[in-house]
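Hi V.,

You were right to ask for the full record rather than a summary. Here it is.
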Amino acid sequence: MSEPLFQSTLRSLPLLGRGKVRDIYALDDDKLLIVTSDRLSAFDVVLPDPIPDKGKVLTRLASFWFSRLAGIVANQLTGIDPEAVVTDDERDQVRGRSLVVRRLRPLPIEAVVRGYLIGSGWQDYQRTGSVCGLVLPAGLQLASRLPEPLFTPATKAAIGAHDENISFAEAQAACAAVLADVLATSGRSAAVVGEEALAAALALYRAAADYAAARGIIIADTKFEFGLDAAGKLHLIDEALTPDSSRFWPADAYCAGSNPPSYDKQFVRDYLATLAWDKRAPGPRLPAEVIARTRAKYLEACERLTGEPFAA
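Predicted structure:
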C-alpha cells in the first residue's frame, strides 16, 4: 500500500483546477497533466479521508480501457510519460496516477449509458415508466436488465451539486450553446456531434460489457465524457469505465429485484447511512475498516478486469 495522496502540490506547472478526484495542470497550449488523487466523494461531498491507491487504480483501469477501446473512438491520450514533465522532486506525486492528455473542448454533458435499471433510472421508471423520456416495458424490477442499453445524458454538476437527467434534445441544445465557437469554426453541427456521442457511448458500453462479462463482472451502467478538437472531431476524455464512473456488479451475486453488491464505494455509502449526517460538506471521517474494505474492492475490480495483479 502506497502513501495516499489527498491533493497534489506541483509547483512546476500552473494549476488549472481541482475536481472531486482529479487535479488538472497546464502543460502547454495543447496538453494537460491530469493527476488522479486518492480523494473519495460520496453524495457529491469530498470526504476528508483518502483511499490509499485509489487514484492509481482509476488511472490503471482508465488507461486499460482507453487502449482496448481505441478502435471505437479517438481518445485524449498523448503517450507522454507524466514523470517527464515535472521536476525530479515531484515525480512521486504523479507516478502511476497521472496522464498527459490533449487539450480538448469538453461536451457539457455526461454521456450516461444504462444496461440495467438502477439508481436514478429506477426512480424515473417507478414514477413515469420511462427513463429520460425513453419508454420502457411495464413490469421491470429493480436491477432488471434492459432490453437494450440506453443512452441517457445528464448535466455536469459542480462539486456539491447533483447531475440531472436530461433528454437527448436537451443534450444537443446544451452542446449547441456551449460549443458554438468550435462548431462554427469546424463547420459541424450540434445535432451531428450529439449523434456521434450517442453512437460512440453505446458502442463503448457494449464492447466493455461483453469483455467484463467474460470476467464475471456486470457493468450495470457507466458515464463517459467526450471532447472536440479544433476540427470538431469527437474524442473520449476524462476517465473511462472505472469504479468511480460505473456500477460494477459481481455476476455470481446478481439477482433482479434486489440491489447487487458493487465494486465501488458502497461500503462508504453503507457506513454513512448509519450516521446522523445531512449529506452536506464537510463530510465525516471514515473508520480504518471502511477505508480498507473500500480499497480492497477497487483493487479487486482492477485485477479482475485487467487480468493483472495490482502493484502500487
